[in-house]
Amino acid sequence: MNTKFNFLYWVVLPLIGGVCWLFFYTVSEPQTVFYGYAENKETQISLDEAARVKSVYVTPGQKVAKDQMLLELDYHGTDIDLAMTKHNIEQASRKIIQKRSEVLTALEKARSEKSEKLAALESEFAQAKSKLDYQKSLVDASKLSGFQNPLEHQLASLQKEIYTTGLAYDQLISSYQKMLTVPSPEEEEVAGLKEKMRLLSLEKNKTIIRAPFDGLVGNINCKNSEYIDAHTTMLSFYEVRPTEALAYVHESMSLTVKIGDEVNVSSVMHPGHTSRGVITGLGHRIIEIPERLRKIPEYKTYGMEVYIRLENGNAFLQKEALKFTLR
Questions:
Q1: Radius of gyration for the chain, computed over Cα atoms and rounded to the nearest angstrom
Q2: Per-residue pLDDT tens for 41-52?
Q3: CA 49 to chain centre
Q4: Distance between CA 6 and CA 17 in Å, rounded?
């Protein structure tokens, strides 16, 4: 009986007292302290269209630098389309050069013919006028009243022919010049083919998937030679250090935190790792606080989610348990 009495007083009662102290310590802990997890910003890499994975160059958890190659894809038909488009551009370009050369030749021919014909007509006009002037010099003008010299009719006819010939050639030359300045159907075709070529080249560049920033490779959901459907996540990508945190405040202190509040942040397992943060968002419901963040895991507690932006350059790990203290 004496042994049972000693066991009760020296073991059981101190144990009960310790549990009660821990419980009341937890309840009475300053309400400016709460806990949460470090969260890395996740980027999911997927495709707008189906493709085959040619090669995977990274492994889960690997640290990579910005623009480092992650995956290489194989878009069926892109190279063939590029080759065919290039061939069509070359053919259309040859037609453009040939037609332009023909127009330039016709333009020079029209200019040459205009000069020759006008020169011949002007020479003929000059000769007729000279002959008319000579005849008039031999006869008294008063005696020629009412008489029309055939040469005068010839001069009028030549003057009209000079005007109509020059106008006709000017219109012809103008049409050739317009043909040289206005895009031809072949030139419009080449412009369209070049745009197609540009888009195909962009498509071909998409065959190389590179790291969007310095970070860590997360889950890889594809493998070499695997066919991937459109909008399927191939891999996830994280920043090296967490930039965000998800914390939980007890429901009793849900009104004591607000957006814009600054907090001191420290690692639960490594108190020497500290940083600062700013509350950027608050949850709109009361939920069960994760067991890992409870002082007494078996004792369910409830609270509100708090979203926190962390300082750059912190030393925390993804999903590391953190302690937050309102400043």
A1: 46
A2: 788 888 777 778
A3: 16
A4: 16
